[in-house]
Fold this protein.
Amino acid sequence: MKTAVTALLCAATMAAGGATAVAAPAEPGDGRLSTSTSGAPRIVDDLGRTVLLRGINVNGLGEYYQEFPDLDPTMPLTEADFAGIATQGFNVVRLIMSWSLIEPQRGVFDHSYLDKIAQATEWAKAHDIGVILDMHQDAWGPAVATPDGVSCPAPLATSVGWDGAPAWATATMGGLATCRLADSREVSVVVQQSFENFYNDVNGIQGEFIKSWEFVVRRFAADPTVVGYDLLNEPSPGLSVGINDYLRLGAMYDRLIPAIRAAEASVPGGFSHTAYFEPSVASSLLPTPGPATGSAGSAGSSGEPRFTSDPNLVYAPHIYNESLPLAVGSIESGFAAAAKAAEGYGGTPFFSGEWGFFGDDASNPEKVARYAAQEDAYLVGGTWWQWKQACGDPHNVQHRENRPDWCQAGEFGEFESFPADSPIRAILSRAYPRAVPGELTAIRADVPSGALEVEGVADRAGVSADLWVPARCAVPEVSGTNIGAGTVRSVAGGSRVSVPVSGAGEYTITVAC
């Protein structure tokens, strides 16, 4: 964070240059986001500005299976986490929530859990961060663990439980059904049968899932800090690969999204939030990504409009190419596939709800840099996996009695554990436009210096761009075309630069350091 002396020197330098002044007043508006397919598909705010959401996943409020009593599976979530997230320039968190905590018993919905989510959104708001509420699951839920005393025959291995669905919504099967393919948490009979039951609404399980979403939505329907809902994390195909991935996943979204819209409309001041819909976790192995739907505006099997007719959707695959085995192909091919799929959904924007590169591989910074270049080239956002990963997280444990030897109780890994000079921190905290007037057409961010160039096309005068610039750009100097005088506000970790556009049409903004 800049010292007071540095801030004063910065102010004097900018005043002398005549291009930039200090102190940027907040723009009017309440920050509601929606999507636009007028021109390039994009996320927009209530001022009509194109918004880039760049941030990180936060799992502190999720319910994860715990294998070892002394190793917690998550870290406590506090306001300090949001303060730290803000210092990286991030403007969104994908906040993990668990169906198992929302509806711990069938038909019983926990208001106290929503209070915790509401507290987190208040902390986010205090640090100018939006929240995507993510109905998260990995390998169905906590209750899929292999029971004590069960031995799994090779090539299978015991499984820990994960996160997501409550025990009452999990398929009841014998112990061997919990054995998983050693290298894939998804490939066990109990996980895939649970998804099969879900898609077929056996015993009304899917209906209860929808009721849980309605319960959440009614609480946050009028809250603009909640910038969207991620409907279901990484849905698995169940026992019918190529059918559930397409038809039944699409039918579930067809049913869920209208229910969410009705819940929003039932609340005074409620409004339509962006809905982030994901393809199957196995989508990169299929000829085309799911879910399959009719064209926008066509009728579904129930006679209601299909979900692609909803005007406020974001296609949200997880671009893990060159990171996870199921995501075949290169980083570049992953982005190309996501863009093509988004176009096929009536031209929705796309957003990578999870991405990252794991382990101590020395090539990770190079991969992160290539990924960041694709984000800037495609003018899209995404959320890194993840902020903190506790020692006892199932991602670290994987199999029964497999104790991680790299950490102790109370320790954690992932982004917040990276050293201050980590090249990955520098790439992720690079300069970017948080919001710009009209359409955004180009981003050029220089990671080492923190400099930034932005191009766009404004639809009118009098609207300002909001840019993030990291602290390594010690004295941001603004220039460009079709713009007024920029203003700079020093914040923890860097600066917020506000630049008004002078008139409709093309503009450029350059922030030099």
